[in-house]
C-alpha cells in the first residue's frame, strides 16, 4: 500500500511514536492549546485517530496567560511494564527574570491506558527543552534533553531528578540542537538529535557509543534526514524518532512542513513517515538519505481507517469531539453542549477579543489541507461590543474573524483581518435576525467568505488573498511562531455581558 506524506496532516509537530503490541501511539506538541498534548492511535502507521489528551483537567495546567507558541513543547511518549509515560517541556513566558526564574520546566504524567486519564503532572526542575525518556538495561532511568543529548537521572517512579545534568553527546556542532532521543540497538547507544533549526535546513544527525556516556562517534552519513531541494513540497524535515514494527521493519516519524505557494507552511509543522535501513556498518539511513518522500511504500500491516480528511460535528453529544482544541484554557461555566439548547453548542461571550490572551472559548480544528471548505450554522443576538462567529486563527497577532456583531443598533456581519498590524475591517454587511450559515472556502493562499440566511443561497462577503500571515513565516515579528492555522468558532465581548451564541453544527469538506 502506497501512502502520501505527511501521514499526520496539519498542526501535529514534534512527533513521538511508540508501538505496544500491534498498536501505535503518537503524541505531538500543543503549545498554548487545550486540552494539552493530543494522543493519536494507529494500527497501520499511516492512518491515525485522536483518542485522548495527556492533560484534560484545566486545574492541572494554567495556560490562560501563556503567550502564543509557548506552553507545551515536544512531548515524548514511552511505555514500560504496563505504564504509559508522557513527558514534555512547559515553556513559560519570557519575563526578564530568567536568571532567577527558569522559563522552561519539564512535566511528566502516567497512565495505565494510552488514552488516559493521566496523572496530574509532576514538575521536574530542569531548565531545558524537548525531554524524552530512556530506561537502561541496568534499571537506571533517564530524562534526555537538549542541547544535543543531555541526561538527567530520575528516581524509580520518574518523579524526581536524582543526578545530572550530564552530557551524553555534544552534537555535531550545527545550530539549534533539539528533539533528542537515546536508543539502544545491537550493543550500541544511538544518540539522535535534530539540528539546523526548526525551519528550512532542519535535519536529523546521529552518533553512537558502546557506553551511555561516551565517547560517541558521529555518523559518517549525517544528516540521516534533511530536505536539500528548496523547490520540493515537503520542507523543514527533522525532529524524529525511530520505531520498529511487528514485522521487524524500522521506520522514522519526523517533523516536516508543506510549502503553500512559496515558503509558507500555513498548515503548520506536520508529521511524516519514512522507512529506515540499517547499514552493514551498523548505522541507519532514513529514506536512504534522500530526504523526505512525498509518496512511499507503506508498512506491511492491515489497513486502519483513522480520521477522515473531512469533519462534521452536529454537537449532539455530551462531550466535544476529540479533534477540537480551545485556544488556552476554556471557561466551562460559559459553555453549554446539548444542554441549554438541545443538539447545539452554546458559547457565551467572555471578556476579550481574539487579539487578547484573556479571550476564552475560542474553539478550533486543525487545518489539514490547502483546499477545503469550512462552514457552520449559528445564531447570535449581539449587543454593542460583542462578537461571535467563524475564525481562521493562527495567533493573537494573526487571524481572520467572520462574525455577527452590532453596529449603530443594527445586526451586522463583519469580516476582519489581523496581519500583526492590528485589526482591519474588510467588509461589513447588515443582516436580518435569525440563523445564518457562515462559510469559508480555502484554496491555497486565497480565502473566500460567504453567508446564507436559508442554507441554499450564498452571498460573498469578501476575499482575503494572499493569507501568508497565517503561518510561521508570513509576518515580520519577534514573537515565537511555531503552530499552524486553525479554523473554528468563537464568542467574545468587551462589554462584560454574557450573551449566548448558538452553533447548530460545524463541518469541514477537504480535498
Offer a concise description of the structure:
This protein has 511 residues and is mainly beta. Helix content is 0%, strand content 49%. The chain has no helices and 40 strands.
Q: How would you describe what is shown here?
A:
By secondary structure, the protein is an all-beta fold. Helix content is 0%, strand content 49%. It has no helices and 40 strands. It has strands at residues 2-4, 16-20, 23-27, 33-34, 36-42, 49-55, 71-80, 83-91, 104-111, 122-124, 132-135, 141-145, 149-154, 161-169, 178-185, 188-195, 203-209, 217-218, 225-226, 234-244, 250-258, 270-278, 284-286, 295-297, 311-313, 325-327, 335-337, 345-348, 350-351, 362-366, 371-380, 386-393, 398-407, 410-419, 423-430, 436-443, 446-452, 459-464, 486-493, 500-510. The radius of gyration is 23 Å and the shape is globular. The protein starts with a strand and ends with a strand. The model has no long low-confidence stretch (mean pLDDT 96).
Element layout with pairings:
Layout: E1 2-4, E2 16-20, E3 23-27, E4 33-34, E5 36-42, E6 49-55, E7 71-80, E8 83-91, E9 104-111, E10 122-124, E11 132-135, E12 141-145, E13 149-154, E14 161-169, E15 178-185, E16 188-195, E17 203-209, E18 217-218, E19 225-226, E20 234-244, E21 250-258, E22 270-278, E23 284-286, E24 295-297, E25 311-313, E26 325-327, E27 335-337, E28 345-348, E29 350-351, E30 362-366, E31 371-380, E32 386-393, E33 398-407, E34 410-419, E35 423-430, E36 436-443, E37 446-452, E38 459-464, E39 486-493, E40 500-510
Parallel strand pairs: 29-39
Antiparallel strand pairs: 1-24, 2-3, 3-5, 4-26, 5-6, 7-8, 8-9, 9-10, 11-12, 12-13, 13-14, 15-16, 16-17, 17-18, 17-19, 20-21, 21-22, 22-23, 25-40, 26-30, 27-28, 28-40, 30-39, 31-36, 31-40, 32-33, 32-39, 33-34, 34-35, 36-37, 37-38
